[in-house]
Amino acid sequence: SNLRTLCSIGGAGKYADFFRYDWKAYRWNLIVLLGAVIGGFIAVSFLSDGSAIALNPQTISELQELGFQDAGATILPPEIYDWDAVFTLKGMAILVGAGFLVGFGTRYAGGCTSGHAISGLSNLQWPSLIAVIGFFIGGLIMTNFLLPLIFGA
Asked: Alpha-carbon distance 138 to 136, whole Å?
């Protein structure tokens, strides 16, 4: 992983055998990561016209009931992604909790959502079908129960 490679570059191999390996063989991972970051910056800075995203009016009203005042006006809602919101106890809990759940889910399911949905299903893999059904059910639970619980008024 990129984190393992970065730790190895930083000298963590002196303290743990896990980081003692030929990290230069994996530097292509870091180049892909750098390309993703640069590509994202270019897309947001130069290829985005700043237009609002198209949302169903019912979705906008439901999001406004949850406290998202400018739902659909921006790509990222400032109630979650603004620096003032991130550095609150609630914001940190959401970020850390979400990161933990994504990492745990990816490890537990043996891959990411797109990997199972695109590659696994196209190869008719039974575990991928089960994983995708689980992802869908998790999305329904999040949208209908957890999101109102977290952001409810």
From this structure: 5
